[in-house]
Specification:
The structure holds two protein chains of two kinds. Chain A is an all-alpha fold. Chain A has eleven helices and no strands. Chain A folds into two domains: 1-30; 33-249, MetI-like fold. The longest helix of chain A has 38 residues, at 161-198. Chain A is globular, with a radius of gyration of 23 Å. Chain B is an alpha/beta fold. Chain B is 40% helix and 15% strand. Chain B has seven helices and ten strands. Chain B has helices at residues 38-46, 86-97, 104-114, 130-143, 160-177, 188-194, 228-259, and strands at residues 2-3, 12-13, 27-31, 57-58, 61-62, 71-74, 148-152, 180-184, 197-201, 208-213. Chain B has a six-stranded mixed beta sheet, sandwiched between helices. In chain B, strands 1-2 form a two-stranded antiparallel ribbon. The chains are: A mainly alpha, B alpha/beta. At the A-B interface, α8 and α9 of A face β6 and α2 of B. Bound molecules: adenosine-5'-triphosphate and magnesium ion.
Amino acid sequence: MSPNKIRLVRFLVILGVVLLWEFYARVFATSSLSAAPSQVLAELWPKVLGEPRVRAAIGVTLIELIVAFVMSVVFGMLIGVLIGMTDIGRRSFYPVVLLLYGIPQAILLPLFVLIFGLGPASKIAFGFSHGIFPVIVNTIAGMRNVNPLLLRGAAAMGATRFEQLRYVMFPHMVTAVFTGLRLAMTLTLLGVLLAELFVSQGGIGFFTLLYAETFNPASLIALILTLALLAIVLNELVRMVEARFSRWKE
Amino acid sequence: MEFPGRDPSQRVLALDDVSLDIRRGEFVCLLGPSGCGKSTLLNIIGGMLTQTSGSATVNGTPVTSPRPDDIAYVFQESTLFPWFTVLENFRLALKFRGVEDANWRDRAMQSLSAVGMEQFASHYPKQLSVGMKQRINLARGLCVGSEVLLLDEPFAALDEQTRMVLGEDLSILLARRGKTIVFVTHSLAEAVFLADRIVVMTARPGKVKASIEVPEPHPRSPDFMLTDAFQDIRKELYGLLRDEIRQTVAAMRVARDAQA
Ligand SMILES: Nc1ncnc2c1ncn2[C@@H]1O[C@H](COP(=O)(O)OP(=O)(O)OP(=O)(O)O)[C@@H](O)[C@H]1O
Ligand SMILES: [Mg+2]
């Protein structure tokens, strides 16, 4: 199938779903519980995105997300390299990381709020607690299976330990690390949003709750769509950076 | 040289009482059955391994760690970094050695054109054939300008024809530079064609069994391979090696039966 045909099919399927939804919402659904796409679009601007408080809330959430993500990446890679570099680290600490990774963090959320308060700090901390693990795990995974011959070659050419890390280990790890980064982006967003929904004073969570409790589905869906769009854009950004680093693989 | 292994039963005596002097500017080929310790010897000379007893000296100083200023290495498989272009690989080699300067690019291009690869400078290793990559590895070994070049079966992964051509190129290249070379190979013809002296090693533990001079000036033309002198040396080498290879195979059988 040609790329154009693939795109056409994809577009038609999506269009079909939207039309079905429109039809369902207009004919069967209760207007206080669900809204048709056309209504959502009409609601998006100016009522939702035109409202300064909503815009500020999206801004706050975005900042929480970015701070949490950057912290996940920095600390995750640091810890990953430290653990993955030595045999001792891999054997004694890696299992601990995997164990922690396995705990569903949602049960710890009240604890986060208790420690970090009702403001952005608890959202950042919770997002961070989601994002850091995939970064650590994938960094460690990336440090395995590096071609020993390349390390030997580098050593024979006089590369220092640091140069071996910088020019052999790190490039080798790029693929795995970016897998971790994409996962971390998704999970950080999840963590931030969960914390927002749990308790929020002015973030997105506050407005989702407000719209839901006032039976305003069109605004609610409009807000959710905005968030989804945000997530897609952020993921694409990570992917673009990855492509920039992966040219040698083509 | 003895490798400790994970427990005493795995201990391997790889080299035993090897004494070898290599003159400045000499091209020496190491020949011997598989597993006799050729790579091990090369690694000791290059400072990649520390010997358990005895000493290795290059240019009057004992070798204890890699000495990129004096010694360059070319391995059996490409050690070009796949994530950098050919040119970037050269730059790194010079940088590791601490001689990256303003005209590194000219230097790299010169070495590349010496092996006829200059038009591939901005390719990634993945875009090159195995033979091309080995040419470039060779060029990189020459580019860093060290006096000693250690080559561990650099052409082993190549087909016969490519090997011959590369061998001729190498002979021409080296005739001009006066480098000291230690070259490990399994090919008798390659050894005779390239070397000033061929060191034949025994089955493990490796010792020096014989040392045979090839009195033919460099660069050598392919016609040299058709001469009687060439054939005579080749036959002599074959005679020396045959027993050692038999012994290696017999030892492997014994080991296998002991395991079964
Ligand atoms: N790192 C190591 N640890 C333990 N034993 C080793 C190690 N390296 C080599 N050996 C042993 O030392 C012996 C010599 O190995 P070496 O690689 O030097 O042989 P070689 O002559 O280069 O063989 P080939 O022609 O097959 O490349 C082998 O029996 C091998 O099992
Ligand atoms: Mg070997």
